[in-house]
Amino acid sequence: MYFQPEIETMPREELFQLQLERIGETLRNAYENVPFYRQQFDEAGVRPEDFRSFEDLQRFPFLVKQDMRDAYPYGLFARPNKDVARIHASSGTTGQATVVGHTAADLRNWGDCFARGIAMVGGSADSTLQVSYGYGLFTGGLGAHAGGEAMGCTVIPTSSGNTKRQVQMMRDLGTDILACTPSYALFIADTAIEMGYDPAKDFKISAGIFGAEPCSQNMRDEISEKLGIQYCDVYGLSEVMGPGVAMECAERNGLHIAEDHFYCEILDPDTLAPVPDGEWGELVITTLTRECCPLVRYRTRDVTRIISEPCACGRTHRKIDKLRGRTDDMLILRGVNVFPSQIEQVITSFEEVVPHYQIVLSTRGPLDHIEVQVETVPEFPFDEVRKLEDLRKRLAAELKGNLQIAVDVKIVEPKTIARSEGKAKRVVDNREAGNR
Ligand SMILES: [Zn+2]
């Protein structure tokens, strides 16, 4: 049920105490061993010994992705080469790659964090874990692999690709738990079905641990149904560790943060002031045990909220909600924060439309005007005006209920909205400059 019961169910007061001690250690490690931090702290006029309470942490400067890029390759390492066991790096698709080093202890902690998720889906040393994340500099494959080994599972390192073989191994070797990206899980499920199997009935698989890319609730449901599994959402990012920073228990209402290894703050993305538990904002992480690359107040740009209510599973570590998006994607419409992912969630719940859409913003008088363009499925009777109007009204009402602001819905014929080979352009912002 638990992988490390004494830690996962530690009384909250003890956990707070542990976090306080470990934040202090992280600040000292950063200040003493990384010239970048020393300079940052000195400029902000703070020293590690100024930290005594969680509030004191707010006096310490943030770390942003650009700092990590600027420090390429070894500028943020707090350990010499002889103590570095492994290097991972982000893909660098949007700029200079970021390089992160791990000591042997860092790697052990990572395996433990991921193994807690394996326990959350009912896994044990008896389980067979198939890792269909890519192996390499990307943290997915080796992160999940370390979790499986820490738990004592039989690990099958298939990596990604060669999907028919994945399916065959999953069936023949009796895979219990699959770990990969959600989109790949769906592809594996569809491939199995095409090959004539019903994985929900014919395969032994009972759980999946999926992360590393955004996934709507509808897609999660589809994956769970097709594979017949418990879906565990895993959060992690290569800068902070990799998969396992937070993992979803069987209660399915949030991801338990590994709070003995990470301290999380949620900040208002505009003012950078902390928000109360339960309110949405940007997730900021301070690592608590990391030796090689300690991170102090790393701004993840991911938007979530803290769920601090006790969890029925018995774990005392607080949870984060499923990510709503990234602050880079957030739109402020008539003073309300809106994420394209919220609109997508509504649209994908309607069978009559396809998941291609565009959000067109303009200025009408002093206000933002929001138009959501959606396409019908090819079978929809597009020339039946009453049916079209009914669909439009239902979509508009659902969107208003979800976003708390009124939007116009424009329904267009199939294949009208431009498709893109890479990242889809979901938002067209024609607002006057002052309103953006
Ligand atoms: Zn729980």
From TrEMBL:
Q: Which residues form a coiled coil?
A: none
Q: Which Gene3D superfamilies match?
A: 3.30.300.30, N-terminal domain of ligase-like
What EC class is this?
ligase
- Enzyme nomenclature, EC number: 6.2.1.30
Gene Ontology biological process terms, A to Z: phenylacetate catabolic process
Q: Which reaction does it catalyse?
A: 2-phenylacetate + ATP + CoA = phenylacetyl-CoA + AMP + diphosphate
Where do the AMP-dependent ligase C-terminal domain residues begin and end? Answer: 335-431
Please name the pathway.
Aromatic compound metabolism; phenylacetate degradation
**Keywords assigned by UniProt, alphabetized:** Ligase, Nucleotide-binding, Phosphopantetheine, Phosphoprotein
The entry lists its GO molecular-function terms as: nucleotide binding; phenylacetate-CoA ligase activity
> Where would I find the AMP-dependent synthetase/ligase domain in this sequence?
80-286
Subunit:
Monomer.
Q: What does this protein do?
A: Catalyzes the activation of phenylacetic acid (PA) to phenylacetyl-CoA (PA-CoA).
User: What protein name applies here?
Assistant: Phenylacetate-coenzyme A ligase
From which source organism is this entry? Answer: Muribaculaceae bacterium Z82
